[in-house]
Design a protein that fits this description.
heterodimer, A: alpha/beta, Rossmann fold, 7-stranded mixed beta sheet, 5-stranded parallel beta sheet, 15 helices, 45% helix, 17% strand, globular, B: mainly alpha, two-stranded antiparallel sheet, 4 strands, 72% helix
Chain lengths: 411, 309
């Protein structure tokens, strides 16, 4: 039997009509997914690794003829600004409006940072545009207590392929009490939505576990000098230093804390898990730092091996865990499009939101499903420690962060 | 650590910060003294110089903190890095003056100041676009040597900061007060028109002020990099604002005032952080700026300018 294309080639008249039909058909079958990450500023490298994770899934789907026949376009937006030097909530809000204003955008991936998430969620809710964040972990955004702020339209639109700081902070406090056996701690945060939330959640659980919290101070992430506060901490001599925040201040905390108290146990959340910390912090300053992520250690998963290979081949560097959660977020979106296409309904924001809400998509972290607030139902927090492996590049997240185990949940 | 040791350590930290602010504040003061212009491009001349310093050190194959040099090679590398960074920074200052500010000379009002803000953003974005937005691990070839002093530790790099700052400030003081060109600068600062009538080449004096101010920012930038082992495209902002506050506190236009102001701001930052909390540092420092502007606009050592109303 002649294929349709061959037939068209042989019959110019039919061909004209046919190609017109195909073009019209193709134009109908395109959806746009927004990707909003801070490509400018201190987290740019990690944002890039996250984007590449998502793009790998979308490019694969497009190469196979699209998701359920829909070709996926990407609208890439940058919520980092030069003035902020990192993610900028005002820019994130602008980007959210841009996505909502464009009818072809049916779902989004991002943001990386909770500070941006807080700015975007109300706008996305009004526009009924679902987003899946691969890394932002502040619990308020999906907390029903704050529904009037972050989901004024009533339905969950902020989905996550990671769990929240309601688990990340406390579980790390448990780990530090149980395994590292610390008795006292000093807490710092970077004044951002994520950092403050994480540090507060950590502090509450640390106190419950009987750890003596000797102080909790806030850093200005643009400030270069933290020797003052670190000297003060040194004089109090706590067993450990916990930092809630992202790389901009994190790099300097890592460097200067090593200079001032090289033997101190230092720990942080997923804000200090990433290439920026390794590159900017450098060795030996970064050595020994504990970091957590709000997801299982996906890179150790045997299923992830082919992903890692494909990623390295395509982008010339190693992925990190949040490249995988971004890949998973993209898989959830692709799966949603496919299910809608199969059911014959139009792929629009409404159907996408509902399909994501009911997701059981098979991803690298297993079947992903969300509760009614948008939070992932799996709640694993993994602990890593930076252990220098000179065989690999210094900023190779996969090989410089050594997986230690799962941080115990609060019983 | 006993409390005496803690405070001693904070004073050491504060003096190191203060030395950096003082060098940076001198650049504001030199230009203001002569042109009555607040040069906001100075923020990012400082920032861009730290990248020049980093490249100068990388010429020797240095990276990170693991390549340690001692003795003559260390001295040689350091002297080269300081000369390269200060020259580079000075040239940037001169270029800014020549191409962005000289065409506007004589236009009254805030045009010049606003232009420097624009230039500042241009420098900022040049670095952002060419170097990227990450944090850089600044190479430091100095061995980690430290001496215990009454429970606190004094590190080699701190001595270096104080030494370099002291030498540069004394040199500047001598230059301004003892040389012909220095005399011409003081004359221009007092009354540029009269100075011109007396045969002073005012353009040359202005170029010199930009060169010296920027070269000092270059020295501050290299010190910054060696002290924190870090640089990034955003470092100009906070350091620049603090240094500007230092210049105003000391009395903008006064060379000694900038030095004293820098040291005071550094000490306030360190001791304020110790006594209260670092989250209040900016509040304290900028409250001082407001108070000085309201109650003593000429600062600690400034003089009211007799030629201007």
């Amino acid at each position: 039997m002649l294929s349709r294309r061959a037939l068209i080639a042989q019959l110019p008249v039919v061909g004209l009509a046919g190609s017109y039909a195909i073009r019209a058909f193709a134009a109908d079958k395109t959806v746009t997914i927004g990707i909003n990450l801070p490509f400018t500023g201190a987290d740019a490298h990690d944002a890039q690794l996250i984007k590449e994770g998502a793009m790998l899934a979308f490019d694969d789907a497009n190469a196979k003829g699209g998701a359920g026949g829909y070709k996926i376009n990407v609208m890439q937006l940058d919520d980092g600004t030069a003035t902020a030097g990192q993610y900028d909530p005002a820019q994130a809000a602008t980007n959210a409006r841009k996505m909502v204003a464009d009818d072809s955008v049916v779902a989004a991936i991002g943001p990386q940072m909770s500070g941006s998430g807080k700015a975007m969620a109300p706008i996305l809710s009004q526009g009924n545009l679902a987003t899946i964040t691969p890394s932002s972990t502040n619990p308020d955004i999906t907390d029903p207590k704050f529904a009037s702020t972050y989901m004024p339209a009533g339905k969950a639109i902020y989905f996550r392929t990671v769990t929240t700081d309601a688990f990340q902070g406390p579980n790390m406090a448990n780990y530090m009490a149980d395994t590292l056996k610390i008795k006292s701690v000093y807490i710092l945060d970077d004044s951002g939505a994520y950092g403050v939330g994480l540090a507060n959640a950590y502090e509450a659980q640390a106190k419950k576990r009987g750890i003596n919290v000797m102080g909790h101070d806030q850093l200005d992430p643009k400030e270069a000098d933290y020797t003052t506060i670190l000297t003060k901490i040194k004089s109090m001599n706590p067993d450990a230093l916990y930092y809630g925040g992202v790389a901009q201040a994190g790099v300097k905390v890592v460097k200067q804390s090593y200079d001032i108290m090289p033997k101190m146990i230092r720990a942080g959340g997923d804000g200090v898990y990433g290439a920026e910390i390794l590159k900017g912090g450098g060795f030996p300053a970064a050595e020994g730092l504990y970091a957590t992520i709000a997801a299982p250690d996906l890179l150790a998963n045997p299923d992830a091996e082919s992903f890692i290979k494909a990623f390295a081949a395509k982008y010339g560097e190693q992925p990190e865990n949040y490249s995988i959660t971004a890949y998973d977020a993209a898989l959830v979106i692709i799966d949603a499009i496919e299910r809608i296409a199969k059911s014959g309904k139009p792929v629009d924001r409404n159907s996408m939101r509902d399909a994501i809400q009911d997701s059981h998509a098979k991803t690298l972290q297993g079947a992903v499903s969300f509760d009614k607030n948008g939070d992932i139902t799996s709640r694993v927090v993994s602990v890593f420690q930076i252990t220098h492996d000179p065989k690999f590049p210094d900023d190779d997240v996969l090989h410089q962060y050594k997986y230690i185990g799962v941080a115990p949940a609060t019983a | 650590m006993g409390w005496e040791a803690v405070y001693l350590q904070q004073v050491i930290n504060g003096l190191s910060l203060g030395a950096m602010y003082a060098l940076l504040a001198l650049g504001f003061t030199l230009v203001y003294g002569i042109l009555e212009l607040i040069n906001f491009a100075h923020f990012n001349v400082f920032m861009i110089s730290s990248f020049i310093g980093m490249m100068a050190l990388e010429l020797f194959g240095l990276s990170g903190q693991t390549h340690v040099l001692t003795g003559l090679p260390l001295a040689g590398v350091m002297i080269f890095a300081f000369i390269a960074t200060m020259l580079g920074a000075g040239v940037i200052g001169v270029v800014i003056e020549r191409f962005a500010l000289r065409p506007l000379r004589g236009i009254p009002g805030t045009v010049g100041m606003i232009t420097t803000i624009g230039v500042s953003y241009i420098l900022f974005n040049i670095v952002l676009l060419t170097e990227g937005a990450g944090s850089f691990n600044f190479p430091n070839p100095m061995p980690r040597v430290s001496w215990p002093i009454g429970g606190a530790t004094l590190e080699l790099r701190e001595l270096l900061i104080w030494g370099v700052a002291l030498v540069l400030m004394v040199a500047l003081h001598l230059f301004v007060n003892k040389t012909r060109l220095g005399k011409a600068m003081r004359a221009t600062a007092q009354d540029s028109e009269a100075a011109r009538m007396m045969g002073v080449d005012v353009d040359r004096v202005i170029v010199m002020a930009f060169f010296l101010g920027s070269a000092l920012a270059g020295a501050a930038a290299l010190i910054f990099g060696l002290y924190y082992n870090y640089t990034s495209f955003i470092i100009g902002y906070t350091a620049g604002l603090r240094a500007f506050t230092a210049a105003v506190l000391g009395g903008i236009g006064s060379v000694t005032g900038a030095m004293v102001g820098g040291i005071i701001i550094g000490l306030i930052e360190a001791l304020g952080g110790q006594l209260i909390a670092v989250r209040w540092t900016d509040v304290i420092i900028f409250s001082i700026l407001v108070l000085v502007l309201v109650f003593a606009p000429t600062g600690l050592m400034g003089r009211a300018n007799p030629t201007k109303s």
